[in-house]
Design brief:
Strand content: 15-25%
CATH class of the largest domain: Alpha Beta
Shape: globular
Pfam family, one: Amidohydro_3
Number of strands: 22
InterPro entries: Amidohydro_3, D-aminoacylase_insert_dom_sf, Metal-dep_hydrolase_composite, Metal_Hydrolase, Metallo-dep_Hydrolases_sf
CATH architecture of the largest domain: Alpha-Beta Barrel
Organism: Streptomyces uncialis
GO molecular function: hydrolase activity, acting on carbon-nitrogen (but not peptide) bonds, in cyclic amides; hydrolase activity, acting on carbon-nitrogen (but not peptide) bonds, in linear amides
Number of domains: 2
Structural class: alpha/beta
Distance between the termini: 29 Å
Number of helices: 19
CATH superfamily of the largest domain: Metal-dependent hydrolases
Protein name: N-acyl-D-amino acid deacylase
Length: 542
């Protein structure tokens, strides 16, 4: 049945100024855009937008909802923001491809990101099986089957390395490298859009440039891109960015920098240095894009800040090292006096580490307090507090790292290759507010309130630019023939409701969201419609 969206202010995602129009949707696509005259007659439904801004649905280029999409048919945290497509499989660790041996370890390693998975039937092993599972995850009363919002998948390089080498810190053999390349080819044929890395997370961080370059060659051969969480966002950040630019250029692979920022005190005011590096590469023909979230704190797991040698061998080996007093003292020395590679080479500042979530309810008193605050309250050293939490919570605790700089955030989001990514973790009692607020925060704070970006430019950052990186020919713009993944918002009132104190609050000013021409949000409320599907990449072979 036709839908006519009348009297909308269309901001089409191209970066051009908005214009008034009526938009007809038919069979999940934009059928017509009427710039003149009254709204067209329809035998279907008509919605008077009454001046609301109509834009393409937002694309979250960095999401951690690999299990949330399976467990939650509503997924309102993202749908309410106007997100119609998420890119998952981030930071080099996810749940496909796996074996019966690697899956349990992966589940433990990223329980802080996605929960333990005890509520999930892990009935897949390959990337194709995982994507097919998403496509049949939920069914609505109207016959729709799939997931709450669309999803694209990145092959996780750390998961590949675990499959081929386990958790060993060594170079792969020729056979092991061939196995990883073969897995990439299979995954790209299954529909993956590229490959991610977490180069401050084990075991992915053990890969040297030569190994990563060879894997990127295979990704590029199948039309994908490389999305690294690179080796440092602190000390040595510029060198880490330069490393990624160099190896992807050697591999001939497009580069998308994950949550690109310059953090910690050593990088205050240094965003222009990063952009100068990228501009030189772009001028020389490099294919580069990046994503950011519009907040200063980062978010990860507490175990991630440990030196990499402490995590070699997997979670059980890490816990054994933490139990041993002598080894634990070595870990403390690296953290507090040297600066561990897990904490980006910067000596630990415990006052910046806020516990945001735990997997054991007995550890709930830690949540919302920094490690330093808790240590002082208990009359102990910060390392004693952190060590006890790591052991008691079996490495599941998540943290906010208050190490960012507002001027860096603003400078990077203005860059022409910038896109939006929430990096949102939905787990924990007090998650980062970006999980519920990234996209309205861009539109409300940084567009309307502070004018860092124009509305048309910001919408392009959140729609057509990510669609171009994903090589999606019919998404990211309000154009006739394009898929009707759309969001209607009030540019005068749109705002993030989530805060650091109360992070699970939905945004305001986004009353309507459509996926495949069907309302998943109506009048600001989640409908019962399931309209999302996996979006398969350029090399997909059914």
């Amino acid at each position: 049945m036709d839908l006519v969206i009348a009297n909308a202010q269309v901001v089409d995602g191209s970066g051009a100024a908005g214009y008034p129009a009526h938009v007809t949707v038919r069979d999940g696509r934009i059928a017509q855009i009427h710039r003149d005259g009254p709204p067209p007659a329809t035998t279907g439904e008509s919605l008077d937008a009454d001046g609301l801004t109509l834009a393409p649905g937002f694309i979250d280029m960095h999401a951690h909802t690999d299990l949330a999409l399976l467990r939650d048919p509503e997924h309102t945290a993202k749908a309410a923001q106007g997100v119609t497509l998420e890119v998952i499989g981030q930071d080099g660790i996810s749940y496909a491809p796996v074996t019966d041996t690697t899956l349990p370890t992966i589940r433990r390693a990223i329980a802080g990101w996605n929960g333990s998975g005890d509520d999930i039937d892990f009935d897949w092993r390959t990337v194709r099986e995982y994507l097919d599972r998403l496509d049949r995850a939920h069914t609505d009363p109207h016959g729709g089957t799939g997931i709450a919002v669309n999803a694209a998948y990145l092959i996780p390089q750390g998961t590949l390395r675990m499959l081929a080498l386990g958790w060993d810190d060594r170079d792969p053999t020729a056979a092991e490298l061939d196995l990883m390349r073969a897995e990439i080819t299979e995954a790209m044929h299954a529909g993956a859009v590229g490959m991610s890395s977490g180069l401050t997370y084990t075991p992915g961080m053990y890969a040297k440039d030569a190994e990563l370059t060879e894997l990127c060659r295979t990704v590029a051969a199948h039309g994908g891109y490389y999305c690294p969480h690179h080796r440092s966002y602190g000390a040595g950040a510029l060198a880490a960015y330069e490393e990624m630019v160099a190896l992807t250029r050697e591999a001939g692979c497009p580069l998308h920098l994950a949550h690109a920022t310059m953090n910690f005190g050593v990088n205050k005011g240094k965003a222009p240095d990063l952009l100068e590096l990228l501009d030189r590469a772009l001028a020389d023909g490099a294919d580069i894009s990046l994503d950011t979230y519009p907040y200063t704190p980062g978010c990860t797991t507490l175990v991630a800040v440990l030196p990499s040698w402490a995590s070699e061998g997997g979670p059980d080996a890490t816990l054994a090292r933490l139990r041993d007093d002598d080894t634990a003292e070595r870990i403390r020395h690296h953290l507090e006096e040297i600066g561990s590679d897990g904490c980006h080479g910067v000596p630990m500042e415990w006052e910046t580490i806020e516990i945001s979530g735990v997997t054991d309810d007995a550890n709930t008193p830690y949540v919302g307090r920094t490690v330093l605050e808790t240590a002082r309250a208990n009359g102990e050293t910060p390392w004693t507090t952190a060590r006890r939490l790591l052991l008691d919570d079996r490495l599941g605790a998540t943290i906010l790292q208050h190490v960012g700089h507002e001027e860096n955030v603003r400078t990077i989001m203005r860059h022409p290759v910038h896109t939006g990514g929430s990096d949102g973790i939905l787990q924990g009692a007090k998650p980062h507010p970006r999980a519920y607020g990234t996209f309205p925060e861009y539109l409300g704070k940084y567009v309307r309130d502070e004018g860092v970006l124009s509305l048309a430019e910001c919408v392009a950052h959140l729609t057509s630019r990510p669609a171009a990186r994903l090589r999606l020919a019919d998404r990211g713009l309000v154009r006739e023939g394009y898929r009707a993944d759309l969001v209607l918002f009030d540019a005068d009132t749109v705002a993030a409701g989530s805060t650091y104190d109360d992070p699970r609050v939905y945004p305001t000013g986004i009353p309507y969201v459509l996926i495949d021409g069907r309302f998943v949000m109506r009048d600001g409320l989640r409908t019962d419609v399931i309209a999302g599907r996996t979006v398969r990449g350029a090399a997909y072979r059914p």
